Model the fold of this input.
Amino acid sequence: MFIQSAGDNMKFLDLFAGIGGFRLALERAGHECIGFCEIDKFARQTYKANFDTEGEVEWHDITQVTNEDVRTLGRVDIITGGFPCQAFSVAGHRRGFEDTRGTLFFEIARIAKQIEPRFLLLENVKGLLSHDKGKTFATILNTLDELGYDAEWQLLNSKNFGVPQNRERVFIVGHSRRFPR
Done:
């Protein structure tokens, strides 16, 4: 897996952090979190209870993170992000990019453009693949391509990994073309 073979002690930024699923995996693989962003105060409280965040950057509303804030981060090798899924989920209204939550992927793109991490590790619901007859997902892949990332994706179900739930999610891994694999 890329997080184990791409080098020792990579630094990552955890966007749309929730309670820290990506962080748990990356820290177990030996990598270091330099900051996180989570708008929900209860998720943030849980995140901070689960992880030692002292000395890390803490952002709440990603739309309020300025380009200057991003430039002060230093080296970031990986950006993670489980960007909001309500706009793409079959359980919601499926308004896609017409829903403000649906546009938050572009905040990841804005930050990635500035700090140019080696990898992007993104997650969303299965409905992202079929939303607007696949045009939404194509827009996301095209955006990553324009930013200089080759993207691979796979639909995974938690039930296949020993978790007692049936939860399908699409995972997208972006590899920067600026760095050799």
Remarks:
- Strands lie at 11-15, 32-37, 57-59, 78-81, 119-125, 149-157, 168-176.
- The CA atoms of residues 22 and 80 lie 7 Å apart.
- The chain has seven helices and seven strands.
